[in-house]
Amino acid sequence: VEEMLRKPQDPNWANAFGQTPLVVASDLGHLEVAALLLEAKADPDLLGSAEGDGEQQTPLYLASTEGHLEIVHLLLEANADHGILSGSHGRTALYQASWHGHLEVARALLDFGGAVNQKDGCCHTALQAAAIRGYGRMVRLLLDAGANADVEGSLGDSPLLHAAQEGHVEVVRLLLQALDGEHLSSRHLDVVRSLLKSGAGQ
C-alpha cells in the first residue's frame, strides 16, 4: 500500500461495488493501512460499502462495529465525524459500539464528544441498544455521560421497557436508579416488579 500511494492516485477511489480503501481497512482492522491512507489524505468521513452490497457506512461506523479500538482512535484524531448516520438503519458509531458491547470504543467516542442522546432512524439511542443487549457496564457508562434514561423510540419503547422484556435485571436496576421513580408508567412498573421478584436474568 505504501508503495502504491507514492504514485499519484486518489486514496478515496471506490470500485464498482462502492468499496473504498479506508472503508475496507477500517472494517477489517488493518491499522497500518488505515494510517497510510489517512496520511495520503483519505477522507475519514467518506461513505462506502464494506461488503460491496450497496450499504453505505463510514470508516468510523465500521471500526466501532467491529471493536477496532486503535483504528477508532486514529479516525477520531483525524477529525472523523462521529455523528454521521450510517447503514440501512441510519445508526451512529456510538450506537454500534453500544450494541456490540465494545466498552472502550464507546468510551473513546464519548471522550471525543460523541452525542450520547443522538437517535438513529428508528429514534433509538445508544442507551436503548445497550439496554436491549443487557450490557450493564455500557449502560452505566452512557448514563454517566448524560444519556436520557427516559428516551422513547418511534413505537414508544424505552430503555427500561427493553431491559424488562429481555429480563436484564442489572440493567433494570441501573435504569430505575437513573429515573429515580419518575416517568414510569404503571405498565412498566408491573413488569419491573415481576422481574425483580422472580430474579429473572440471574
TrEMBL record:
<keyword id="KW-0040">ANK repeat</keyword>
<dbReference type="Pfam" id="PF12796">
    <property type="entry name" value="Ank_2"/>
</dbReference>
<protein>
    <submittedName>
        <fullName>WarA protein</fullName>
    </submittedName>
</protein>
<keyword id="KW-0677">Repeat</keyword>
<dbReference type="InterPro" id="IPR002110">
    <property type="entry name" value="Ankyrin_rpt"/>
</dbReference>
<feature type="repeat" description="ANK">
    <location>
        <begin position="17"/>
        <end position="49"/>
    </location>
</feature>
<feature type="repeat" description="ANK">
    <location>
        <begin position="55"/>
        <end position="87"/>
    </location>
</feature>
<feature type="repeat" description="ANK">
    <location>
        <begin position="89"/>
        <end position="121"/>
    </location>
</feature>
<feature type="repeat" description="ANK">
    <location>
        <begin position="155"/>
        <end position="177"/>
    </location>
</feature>
<feature type="repeat" description="ANK">
    <location>
        <begin position="125"/>
        <end position="154"/>
    </location>
</feature>
<dbReference type="InterPro" id="IPR036770">
    <property type="entry name" value="Ankyrin_rpt-contain_sf"/>
</dbReference>
